[in-house]
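[retry 2/3] gamma-glutamylcyclotransferase: previous attempt timed out, resubmitting with same input.
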Amino acid sequence: MLPATDPPNVPNTLVAGSHALRVIKQLKRVENATRKCFQPATRNQSLPSPSKRRKLDSLQERPYNLSFPPVPQLSKDPSQPSTILYLAYGSNLSSETFQGRRGIHPISQTNVVVPELSMTFDLAGLSYLEPCFANTRYRSEPPPTSSSYSNPPSSSDTEKADTPDYRKTRWHKGLVGVVYEVTPTDYFHIIATEGGGASYQDVLVTCYTLSPSTSVVPSLPTNEPFKAHTLYSPITPPGTKPPESGGRFSRPDPNYAQPSARYLKLITDGADEHGLPQEYKTYLHQLRPYRITSQKQRLGAFVFGMIWLPFLSLVIGLSNRYADERGKAPKWLVVLMGWIFSGMWASYDGFFKGLFGDGERTAGE
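[retry 2/3] gamma-glutamylcyclotransferase: success.
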């Protein structure tokens, strides 16, 4: 299985680059799914739920260190779990994305609510085209990673109310998603297709199963909890150093941007496929996508794309060629990605937004 040792520091110069690599993976994923994006979603009922024994075993697990992952292999110790419970949300709810394009083959799956997490859209993307992507945020204190597991949080930590400035939405309950049971090989593939773990930590979160008949998400679930791994990317506020175990590129107001219509469609389709609670699906369908509302914005999107898309295509090609089997790009390429990504957003903030209009949020919303 994966080691549970302390990760090394991530140099500041690699923060924007590792974030850019993650964004490039997201852009490729959305683009690949575009052809089928507007087809009706069908209910996914083909997989069983994780066994009760597997859920109990998860309570004894620890977070994994993603810094130097070994060749994936099943544990030879019969007392240790030979599979990984992975929490998916956002576009990973879509079977076309998660199981189709990414080639993941889950053993089992179950719908869950995670009271300690909320879904955000604060992962900066490509202005005018794909302004932002889904991410997670802790509603109170973040849980321990592999470097701090000696002091686990108390149960009261996950019951604290949302911070007032969390996000301008009406959803104030926990994250609703799907826990997949996957092999270590598939989990490494998930890490690789999310950007190689360069800006991620593996964390364990407390999940509560949602039955297929659940229509209203419970604020404080009372059924038996279990643990699942998920990939957490801590935000790096402007002007501050990233956390010791990694950080990501941050916009001045990470709650400002709106996702594109086609990206939201992947999420709502996935929610329909898995039969998530109607309350949560209603919330997702009420999210407003970014819309271009003026000719100036359309012109700005065209010019912005003409300038920056060739650079993104270049680094995508270089990433495909030079990334290793774990999805990790060489340091020089990560630095190059960081320069391009930082330059792209600097040009938007300093020139495009003022001349052509807002490329992150629909005018008037």
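[retry 2/3] gamma-glutamylcyclotransferase: Residues 12-286 form a domain with the Hypothetical upf0131 protein ytfp fold (CATH 3.10.490.10).
[retry 2/3] clearing retry counter.
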